[in-house]
């Protein structure tokens, strides 16, 4: 069932091959030395099958496009601009609404669960037989998680995880199959509700970013292929350039809704996606973020019966801190390394949907059991505060008027636990409680990330960090003579949370802003930034960021922002792919069909030459549309009334152009000619062969290209640089390294 | 004295011509219709004299450069990266320190002044003869302003104004003469202290941005030409690319210090400067901003005897709002229009330094007189609060225990007045007081901006906006039946301030973030953004932003972020400059000297061809260094021991390359040949002639180019696109407009 989709099948196959190669080599050799082309010949067959399409961020400025643009009046452009703003507003609104639904659903489900379990525990604490409570808790958790895992594993595997790696890839310019579909969104939302309510060590923040992106992709296209509904609006935006811009806005709106951090959202989008700073686009992104936070706030304030009180933005906010320490990303690196091996294990052995569901249920049950055991054996009793700040205070074996401190950490949604760790007064936790909690939660979170459920890693990271940060603060207060000055464990918890999160995900700039916005206090900016930088530097020394690991494991041709520093000795000649399949300006249909059908090359862009000098570039998708509409020179002559092909025909086919196999071309038609002049991009970007790699990289990245033609001094095509040619160079510990990637 | 600098002289001459043309036409025709080339033939001679150099953001990747890069080890790049971070830290620290000095100096000087005047007023209120107080006040003001105006007018005219237009131009890629020199910084700092202490309607925030930029330019180059001191460090950074990056960081640090808004600073720099989003650069900019805020805070907290209390960042902070209205930018547009005509008047008539100083003193005296009159005739007495929140409460003719409300607005530094308007409880001001204050302050601020003193327009704009915003709030509360809900005039003051500032300067994104960070409350984000957007839209309908007006009046070839929407019908062929002066790969020295000496063309970049196809691009500055070192083929043969030219020689000459006239080339040498192969950039970016203007624009802007070669299908050079070719197209009210600009 899961393999009915061919792309996915190929993708899985490819990942298996790659992992096989990774596992067959000792980790030492794969990290330390140049991986040359020849040494991985065995995997080459495999990576050729694997198809990750790239996005075309560069407009194909062919005659049709230019004619349309020239026909359009000044007012027309104004209208387009206004619709862009309207779409961004809609994206923000819908994203905020989704966040609101998730929040309310999780609150209610988790509240119900904890209420039932608490009642049960209180009942059995006196009469004995707490094992029944344990079973109840474990069964409830597993049931929730089962639902979440089943829908993800059987209906839409693309909705697994936080979705942030996928969105990162999309914004980077790589099309991940099925990532921005409506079905993915629905499964994602239901899945995240189930997994958080099921008590897994996960957060609901990461999936918001994915949800925002899906909303954006859907709204901006004015149609849904899943629902087979076309509203016939926003047709102008049906191309990669515009769609990617809106998806950036959606991701930003997601961050904004998740953390109440509109500026952080904008920076996240820019950090991950935008290559060329576009001022109007950034404003629109910011607008979407603002609307999203505002919507979430507004509806939550109504839900909480305090309409108009907009002071607590975001799904999680850390509360306000009323006002240092340099900690490191070692734990983050450890987390990532463990998760790396776990992921490889999973890819190898746990790939059947049934197994995936069972693993998820197992984790849920283990989480409940471990939590219960920790609470059961803990003897850290704290007096109940006068304001009853705990949500579900478990008395258990404590004296009357006291509650079990371990339970505030375990018997709660992770968001609330984080807030308790930040804000509970000094002395609320024993050092022993905190150490045990950190240790167990660390392993639980590590095991949980990568399960086939929709879930984020932000909150668990924050929670682990907050726990050991607070522990550190308590210890520091104990050993310093003038303990009172340093005795603000909540601050250490915040710094620890920042360090842990930074060590795991490694997004410095946007993360700083997100943290600052979530704490609502700019004075923490500098320490948070220093902590994050330290965590990044220390973590990078050992292993990459979690998202990057997962991206790399999928062998996505991910382009970083700059070429490796020591790559000036490489030139376009060495980097480019050659020879290149070129077409003549007027080409035989048979030739075109043969080239497109050739699965061994599977190119997407073809330079057009006359007679040898380059005069244009045409895309596979354009050729397919031309073949489908049989735009042949001979037919045009015979049937004069034939409708001229419009830009609309290309837009209607976007984004799922049919494969070449589905287009029937008869033997007669194969002898016809096609005139590409009108449809090719007459001014593709070109570089000379001697151009250095950083220069090629800069041009490619700044303009979001998909194909860059390399020419010699007479403008003859000598090669083609694509994403995979650039993505395979990266800076390792010992200088430039080259690796093999999936074909673009 | 002022005209000893030739560039400045030319610049003034050019502006006069331009203004003459502007004034000779009726404003209607110059706004409403296409200004074609022919209609301004009269001014053409003039604009040819005017020289604004562009910055080269594109590295010239010649053989020397590539060799150096290839020689450099991985560790070398690490060291460079670390020094970049160190420099950014230094920039932040020094900028914060300067902000701190300015703040303390202004506080003390203004405090002294107000103390003296207050004593005097109190003395004469009883015995009569308040005119003596008036004279004292006016004389004190004029004296301060005179000092400020004299140093600016006579020593460094480049330090006049806020410096923000100049920094905008610099970040945009236009080299404004003398803008990042040490002397400018010193004059700027002293000037701003004097003008704020002198009671002008100005702020000290704008000049901080300029100061930060100068600090950055100085620190990053590791030498000062003014002090004739070369520390022999950071030599690698002596080129336009690196220097501009650091100047971005400096500007961000300036914003950050001025408003306590590090994120706002980063966004300001990105909005104005960065074209290509560079992640590492952005982190460094953010780091500089953080350090800057932190430094300012730290030293101010020590100064205020509260060391470690870092809760009030920035030179101005609005205080914290405890948690709508859509207002418009009409007043902003009016301000800009008035200031536009005033500036033209000033450029025409007030250009002698003596006159400028006298005008500044006149404004100072008038400001004092008007303020005094307003206070004198006001009868808005308010009871003194228990906590004595006013800094200099003037009793004047009020009853005991009361103070004059008008005086809180006028008898204070503008920063404090803004805060009073935001935070004083409802009822602190009469509507009449506010209207009178708004009206007079509006005209005073408008008159003041553009005086030959260093001063910013942020605070006066905020003050005007706050006053009428509060007025609006009071009126709204009066007319609504349930007045109490809306009766928070401070919020209206904030919105009014945002609207007024937005209407005047029109920086939406960074301004929103700055305002949000300065208020310290993210819930105001959405209303502030909406208000700013409205103000921008309304304001843009009437007239451009203040900074843009001033940039345009100086006829700077400023590139906006995108090509005008309706410019798809233009191609590179129509836009480019042709014919182009090309050199051969091995060229006669005489030819080169003749071309460089030709003042009528004055090109800066020359394509190198072999025999007709393009094979490189060489810059004027490079040729000058080659000529200076007499790198001739014949000499190399005869003197084999001659030192090979190094990249260091080019760096030492940077940024003030000698003019061609100062290089003596004998008649014999003129017959020698020069081999340009090693020094030219062998892979300049090229475009075909048919490329549309938006495509050319995008390439040019994204990569920060200075020259873009236009080639035909055989790679022959047919034209050269420079900044001025692109900057002359802009979108007017009725579609595309073309205008004549100064030659780049």
From TrEMBL, chains A, B:
Pfam families in alphabetical order = CBS, Voltage_CLC
Instruction: Give the stretches traversing the membrane.
Output: 82-106, 127-155, 246-269, 281-303, 323-342, 354-377, 432-450, 457-480, 492-516, 523-543, 606-627
Q: Which Gene3D superfamilies match?
A: CBS-domain (3.10.580.10), Clc chloride channel (1.10.3080.10)
MF (Gene Ontology) = chloride channel activity; chloride:proton antiporter activity
> Organism's domain of life?
Eukaryota
Q: Which positions make up the signal peptide? A: none
UniProt keyword annotation of Repeat present: yes
The family database entries (SUPFAM superfamilies) matched by this protein are listed as: CBS-domain pair, Clc chloride channel
Q: Where does the record place the CBS domain?
A: 680-738
Q: Which UniProt keywords apply?
A: CBS domain, Chloride, Ion transport, Membrane, Repeat, Transmembrane, Transmembrane helix, Transport
Where in the cell is the protein located? Membrane
Topological category with respect to the lipid bilayer: Multi-pass membrane protein
Q: Which CDD domains match?
A: CBS_pair_voltage-gated_CLC_euk_bac (cd04591), ClC_6_like (cd03685)
Q: Supply the InterPro entries for this chain.
A: CBS_dom (IPR000644), CBS_dom_sf (IPR046342), CIC-7 (IPR002249), Cl-channel/antiporter (IPR051280), Cl-channel_core (IPR014743), ClC (IPR001807)
According to its UniProt record, which protein family does this protein belong to? Belongs to the chloride channel (TC 2.A.49) family.
- Record-given protein name: Chloride channel protein
Query: Source species, please?
Result: Oncorhynchus tshawytscha (Chinook salmon)
Q: What is the lineage of its organism?
A: Eukaryota, Metazoa, Chordata, Craniata, Vertebrata
């Amino acid at each position: 069932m899961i393999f009915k989709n061919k792309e996915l099948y190929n993708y899985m196959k490819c990942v298996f091959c790659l992992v096989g190669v990774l596992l067959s080599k000792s980790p030492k050799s794969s990290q330390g030395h140049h991986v040359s082309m020849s040494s991985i010949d065995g995997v080459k067959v495999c990576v050729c099958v694997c198809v990750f399409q790239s996005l075309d961020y560069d407009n194909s400025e062919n005659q049709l496009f230019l004619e349309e643009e020239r026909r359009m009046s000044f007012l027309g452009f104004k209208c387009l601009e206004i619709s862009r703003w309207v779409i961004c507003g809609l994206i923000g609104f819908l994203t905020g609404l989704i966040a609101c639904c998730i929040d309310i659903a999780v609150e209610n489900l988790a509240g119900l669960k904890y209420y039932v379990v608490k009642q049960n525990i209180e009942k059995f604490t006196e009469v004995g037989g707490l094992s029944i409570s344990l079973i109840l808790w474990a069964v409830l958790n597993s049931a929730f998680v089962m639902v979440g895992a089943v829908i993800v594993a059987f209906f839409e595997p693309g909705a697994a995880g936080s979705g942030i790696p996928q969105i990162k890839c999309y914004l980077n310019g790589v099309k991940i199959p099925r990532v921005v579909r409506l079905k993915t969104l629905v499964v994602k939302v239901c899945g995240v509700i189930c997994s958080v309510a099921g008590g897994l060590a996960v957060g609901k923040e990461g999936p918001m970013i994915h949800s925002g992106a899906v909303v954006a992709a859907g709204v901006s296209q004015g149609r849904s292929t899943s629902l087979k509904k076309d509203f016939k609006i926003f047709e102008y935006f049906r191309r990669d350039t515009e769609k990617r811009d809106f998806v950036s806005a959606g991701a930003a709106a997601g961050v904004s809704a998740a953390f109440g951090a509109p500026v952080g959202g904008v920076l996240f989008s820019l950090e991950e996606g935008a290559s060329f700073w576009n001022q109007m686009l950034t404003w629109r992104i910011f607008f979407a973020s603002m609307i999203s936070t505002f919507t979430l706030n507004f509806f939550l304030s109504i839900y909480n019966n305090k309409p108009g009180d907009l002071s607590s933005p975001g799904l999680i906010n850390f509360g306000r801190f009323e006002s240092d320490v340099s900690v490191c990303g070692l734990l983050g690196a450890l987390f990532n390394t463990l998760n790396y091996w776990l992921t490889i294990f999973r890819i190898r052995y746990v790939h059947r949907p049934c197994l995936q569901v069972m693993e998820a249920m197992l984790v849920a049950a283990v989480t409940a059991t471990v939590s219960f055991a920790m609470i059961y054996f803990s003897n850290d009793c704290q007096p109940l505060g006068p304001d009853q700040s705990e949500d579900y205070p478990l008395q258990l074996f404590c004296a009357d008027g006291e509650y079990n401190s371990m339970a505030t950490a375990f018997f709660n949604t992770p968001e609330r636990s984080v807030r308790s760790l930040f804000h509970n007064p000094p002395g609320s936790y024993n050092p022993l409680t905190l150490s045990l909690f950190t240790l167990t939660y660390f392993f639980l979170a590590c095991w949980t990330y990568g399960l086939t459920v929709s879930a984020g890693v932000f909150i668990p990271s924050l929670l682990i960090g907050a726990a050991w940060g607070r522990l550190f603060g308590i210890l520091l207060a104990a050993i310093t003579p003038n303990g009172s000055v340093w005795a603000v464990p909540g601050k250490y918890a915040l710094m620890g949370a920042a360090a842990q999160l930074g060590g795991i995900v490694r997004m410095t700039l946007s993360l700083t802003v997100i943290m600052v916005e979530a704490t609502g206090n700019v004075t923490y900016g500098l320490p948070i930034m220093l902590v994050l930088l330290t965590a990044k530097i220390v973590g990078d020394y050992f292993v990459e960021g979690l998202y990057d690991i997962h991206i790399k494991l999928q062998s996505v041709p991910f382009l970083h922002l700059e070429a490796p520093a020591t790559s000036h000795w490489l030139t376009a000649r060495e980097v480019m792919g050659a020879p290149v399949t070129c077409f003549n300006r007027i080409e035989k249909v048979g030739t075109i069909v043969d080239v497109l059908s050739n699965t061994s090359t599977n190119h997407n862009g073809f330079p057009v030459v006359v007679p040898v000098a380059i005069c244009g570039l045409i895309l596979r998708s354009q050729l397919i549309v031309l073949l489908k509409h049989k735009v042949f020179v001979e037919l045009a002559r015979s049937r004069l009334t034939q409708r001229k092909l419009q830009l609309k025909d290309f837009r209607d086919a976007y984004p799922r152009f049919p494969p070449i196999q589905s287009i029937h071309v008869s033997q007669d038609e194969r002898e016809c000619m096609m005139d590409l002049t009108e449809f090719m991009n007459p001014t593709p970007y070109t570089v000379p062969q001697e151009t250095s790699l950083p220069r090629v990289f800069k041009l490619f990245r700044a303009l979001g290209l998909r194909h860059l033609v390399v020419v010699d001094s007479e403008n003859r095509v000598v090669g083609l640089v694509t994403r995979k040619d650039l993505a395979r160079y990266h800076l390792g510990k010992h200088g430039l390294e080259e690796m093999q990637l999936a074909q673009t």
